[in-house]
Amino acid sequence: MNPADKALEFFKVKKHFQLGSLPTEQVHPDTVNLSNDSKTNLEKGISSLKSLDLHLLQVMWDKRSELIPLLDDIRSTIGSGGRIFLCGCGATGRLSIVLETLWHEQHSGRPLEKTVVGFMAGGDCALIKSIEKFEDFPEFGARQLTDLGFGKNDLLISTTEGGETPFVIGATEEATRISKRKPYFLYCNPDDILKSTAERSRRVIESSSILKINLTVGPMGLAGSTRMQASSILMLAVGLGLNFYNKNFELLEIELKKFIDAVQKIDFFSLIPFIERESEIYQNSEYLFYECNDVYGITIITDTTERSPTFSLHGFENTADSEKSPCLCYLLFSHCKSSEEAWCELLRREPRTFKWGDVDFKTDATRILGYDFSESLIVRRAKMTGSADHRFSIFQKENGIECALDNIATTIPYRSEYNLFEHTLLKFLLNIHSTLVMGRMGRYRNNIMTWVRPSNNKLIDRTVRYIMTLLAESDIAPDYDDLVERCYNAMETTKDDESIVEHICSQFTAQKD
User: What's the CA gap between 455 and 57, in Å, rounded?
Assistant: First the structure.
């Protein structure tokens, strides 16, 4: 389909994807100078982002009692032999797979190990790279759910940062038709705004067949980057349900409070030399491995792959591709001999793939195994880049999370008997680290994602809104539909690692000059 036809298709549905009124899409007033802080005042940048994570922890604490029915339903489902399905798309899809992986780790070798099934739009392949347009279709969510064998005794827990993702809504509504158990729908925007913005959201919010938990946390630290605070609180909420479903609620409160206190006390400024060094490596046109074992691998791969769509970076290169551009960083399991072994260690199960006709090449087993982060990656990357990649190692030690990059090393002094809390903390740290590294690389302006890649309808609208926001600073007021057409044209003419927002803005400013 050519750009003009793609634009016409978008115009038919644009009213359903104009989401600028949602808090998760808006600019946070506390981080408006984030791009400058990343270059000149890392202490301030870290402090402002950490304060937003502490805010989401406070929201979780205030909302903790709303988890009681969820814990009860998880207990009832598992007690009667049912399974728990976790559904999401993009960042929430990845957190669903993270939580399934952590469950497998906790219950390895025991009957409960297979009780939790996490899936995302596009299947496990989308853990590395989202499948274009997949999240725009509710029928795809319903189909993936049924293909996984969701049954009448199973419980679905859906997460969507915005509360409007069609794929997740499709899966949730399908669950009401299949299971005797009402599905859960967790999201991060106010009900009244969602209902007036998206009909599909209003339908879910007003449905008596769907149980809702609203975890509104306000705008993200980087506007629209819901991989940060929104997905963090959703991961924590569902994770608390899975970790404490068979325990007294008072224990959940005790452990959550201990975690909040620990995060407050941990010195996030220890990230500074790592941020400086990693950005220096990239600015020198060099590359990086994130090396770890299976303990932290699932959270590290989540952060590293989510950088690609957020900042228009080359994604993990695939061995099946004839043309390859090296990504800035790649996960490395140097202890694994093959791609199959690496994937099984990462997920603590075999990868789940599927074949749906015209998307087979994006979702099948050949594709996922082409993302090979086993020991063979070392030689393959050296041939591609012409040098050995630097290594950023992150390992679990008795006294905390041990990090080392070149001659820099530190240990984050935190361990917990609940792997959920360790991974949530690591998510906070990596989100802050990667966001500030990208700020030093010029990959956003102020706190606006100027390098977002518009791969679905929601991101087309987001891209257009950001262009309009930036052009308003020059007293330029372009037409919305014209910008949509320019976006589709730009996707054909710009490279994956170029900014469509800046490209289109420059067209207007050049005309004005």
Answer: 31
Strand locations in 272-367 (E)? 288-291, 329-332
Same domain, 116 and 150: yes
Mean pLDDT rounded to a whole number for the chain: 95
Residues recorded for the chain = 513
Q: Domain containing 107 — which CATH number?
A: 3.40.50.10490
CB 500 within 8 A of CB 491: yes
For the segment 480-498, what is each residue's pLDDT rounded down to a tens digit?
Answer: 999 999 999 999 998 888 8
- Domain span at residue 466? 3-22+448-512
* Same domain (yes/no): 246, 353: no
Q: Looking at residues 325-335, what average pLDDT do you find?
A: 96
Strand order in the sheet with 211-214: 116-120, 84-88, 155-160, 184-187, 211-214
- Specify whether 399 is located in the same domain as 492: no
Residue 44 in domain: no
Q: Which residue, of 239, 265, 291, is where some domain finishes?
A: 265
Please indicate, yes or no, whether residues 277 and 129 belong to a single structural domain of this protein.
no
- Establish if 47 belongs to a structural domain: no
Both 90 and 108 in a single domain?
A: yes
Q: Are 211 and 262 in contact (CB under 8 A)?
A: no
Q: Are 307 and 331 in contact (CB under 8 A)?
A: no
Element (H, E) at 403: strand 400-405
Same domain, 458 and 412: no
Instruction: Report how far residue 155's alpha carbon sits from residue 320's, in angstroms, rounded to the nearest whole number.
Output: 37
Give me the number of domains the chain comprises: 3
Residue 371 identity (one-letter amino acid)? Y
The average pLDDT across 191-203 equals 96
| Amino acid at position 153, single letter | N
Contacts of 44 (CB under 8 A, 6+ apart): 33, 37
What pLDDT band is residue 360 in, cutting at 50, 70 and 90?
Answer: low
Does some domain include residue 137? Answer: yes
Instruction: Kindly state whether residues 231 and 309 are assigned to the same domain.
Output: no
Cβ(157)–Cβ(241) under 8 Å?
Answer: yes
Confidence of residue 130 (pLDDT cuts 50, 70, 90): confident
CA separation (Å) from 405 to 275, 279, 394, 441? 10, 12, 9, 18
Reported as half-sphere exposure (CB side, CA atoms, 13 A), residue 351 has a value of 26
| Cα separations in angstroms, 20 against 162, 343, 460, 491 | 11, 38, 12, 22
In the listed set 440, 462, 480, which residue is the last one of a domain according to the structure?
440
Q: Which two tokens stand for residue 294?
A: 């299976």
Coil, strand, or helix at residue 385? helix
Q: Please state the rounded mean pLDDT for residues 431-458.
A: 94
Residues 6 or more apart from 97 whose CB is under 8 A from it? Answer: 86, 118, 119, 120, 124, 127, 298, 347
90/237 same-domain check: yes
Query: How many angstroms separate the Cα of 428 from the Cα of each of 97, 144, 159, 271, 381?
Result: 17, 30, 19, 11, 29
- Average pLDDT of the residues in 156-160: 98
Q: Which of 344, 389, 348 is nearest to 369 (CA)?
A: 344
